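Example 9 (inverse folding). The structure is encoded as follows.
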């Protein structure tokens, strides 16, 4: 069995504990965090800018509910 280790960032800042050669892919909040990872030596091929994951309920405004 092959396991992949991913890091899904739920913050807009890089914490050093997130950096590991063991991580196969990073999902980050924005382009600025992607650039920080690249500057820290992570290959851009291992980074996806996906935004901050939130519950679907937070997508709706009071007018939509």
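The amino acid assigned to each position is listed next.
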């Amino acid at each position: 069995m092959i396991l992949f280790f991913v890091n899904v960032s739920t913050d807009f800042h890089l914490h050093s504990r997130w950096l590991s050669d063991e991580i196969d892919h990073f999902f980050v909040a924005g382009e600025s965090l992607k650039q920080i990872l690249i500057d820290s030596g992570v290959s851009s091929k291992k980074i996806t800018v996906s935004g901050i994951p939130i519950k679907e309920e937070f997508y709706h405004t009071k007018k939509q509910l």
